[in-house]
Amino acid sequence: MVPTENNASPVVYNTLEEIRLRKEQLSNDIDREGDRIAELWDELFHRRDDSSKGEYIASLVTNTITAIDAFLLVRKLMKSYSGVLSFLTPKRKKHR
Fold this sequence. Notes:
Blueprint: H1 16-45, H2 53-81
């Protein structure tokens, strides 16, 4: 008995040969799916080298704006919370 993919009834194997064939079929399916997953994973995390000059400039501008934004955010937070953290710094004594 050859099982179908959406078969609701349990699969019954009558001989060891049927079990061996099904095992080989499943092994091949797993290998094919594993290869496909590896291809998709590589596509996801590998850089594309065929970017145009316009894409390069757009990426450069985007990264520059992100860096400036991060710098301004840190500066704003330091200015806002400098009074809160002042109790951690030792106080200097004034010499007369």
